């Protein structure tokens, strides 16, 4: 008698949550909230409703972000992949909304926000994560013809440069360059041929330079970076004040909430220059501690990406982790004067609902991938 047999394979999530990763996220978030409080309390008392004004605003985004993080850590990513095109189109529309009257909100010459009741939201924060998701999905589906111009590379480039163009039009040059760098890194990790990087650089580098010179303030920031003595009381004031705050921290720091006189001279220190407050309070030891914690977070993320045997999830984990790591390094570089001034927030630390929300959502995706194990269940009949 002859029996037919069938083999059924299905991926199962059988790993436990990476405890070390979760602890590093909680510590970064906790230190960030404490730093936000003592850097913003004086400004909150003088200008707003009280010392906890900015912390209360941030807590709304933190609570919402933690809920979203837990949802993203459990959601079926294979199901989400089916809606990649729809998610991409919605994200593009979201990034076009800041240009519309009433809905769009402009600040300091940048059309980067949309207004939702009394809150504002920055859609370019969503674009970073969605770009990573789109490229990971595309390169996984086309991995057998990843260097094919017609079926893979062209699609990736169209989406990448569409995001870059829209975000530059929002007057957010720094974010557009982060997206460009992020795209290049994912291309490299996915195994795209080096010949495409040549094409990439020949086209993108001149365009990036041209866009710098299209805005006067970008040129001034570049000059200020190359010549720190230029316009000390003007465009260089914030960076110079930040350096003084870092120096005042010394080796052991001034202590949280006590004697932090230098950060009071930094305009809106609780936003992009919050790391100067951490450095003055915690000193050199605190700076080393922060980078050690960030390094541990990066180690956990990239270990997850390398060990995951699903190509889509591996690329997605790498891209999501890189968003947080590259923004953190860029922000710290600006604060200490090692990079030209930009408007990049420090993940987990800077005041800003959009950044906090998307940072925690990104962490949720990484936690989700950390639990994935591509095991196969064999059923015979």
Description:
With 381 residues, this protein is mainly alpha-helical. Helices cover 65% and strands 4% of the residues. Residues 1-13 and 375-381 have low confidence and may be disordered. The radius of gyration is 22 Å and the shape is globular. α1 runs antiparallel to α2 (53-74) and α4 (84-96) runs antiparallel to α5 (124-141).
Summarize this, please?
By secondary structure, the chain is mostly helical. The protein has 13 helices and 3 strands, in the order H-H-H-H-E-E-E-H-H-H-H-H-H-H-H-H.
The helix count comes to 13
Number of strands: 3
Average residue pLDDT: 87
Unreliable residue stretches: 1-13, 375-381
Relative helix content: 55-70%
Terminal CA distance reads: 14 Å
Strand order of the largest sheet: 1-2-3
Shape: globular
Largest sheet composition: 3 strands, antiparallel
Estimate what percentage of residues fall within beta strands.
under 5%
Q: Structural class given helices, strands, pairing?
A: mainly alpha
Radius of gyration: 22 Å
Question: SSE order in H/E notation?
Answer: HHHHEEEHHHHHHHHH
Which characteristics define this entry?
381 residues, globular, mainly alpha, 13 helices, disordered N terminus, three-stranded antiparallel beta sheet
